[in-house]
Amino acid sequence: MVQLSTMMDVLAPMQFSGEFLQYAIVFFVLAIIAAAVGARGVAGISMEIARIFIIIFIILAIVSLLL
User: Fold this and answer.
1) Against a cut of 0.85, is the pTM above it?
2) Smallest Cα–Cα separation from 31: which of 16, 47, 14, 7?
């Protein structure tokens, strides 16, 4: 039983959380607001950051489902 709990402590940090998805949503909303105000540069950068976070989220979701 000691080995099982030790193994679970090691694997616990690898569990999936939705933080990347939350960050992607925040940057997407920021991009929408920036586009509405007319700040095209900020909107473009925010959309790129949101896109990167969504890609990371999808990769981590697939890895967590496989493990």
Assistant:
1) no
2) 47
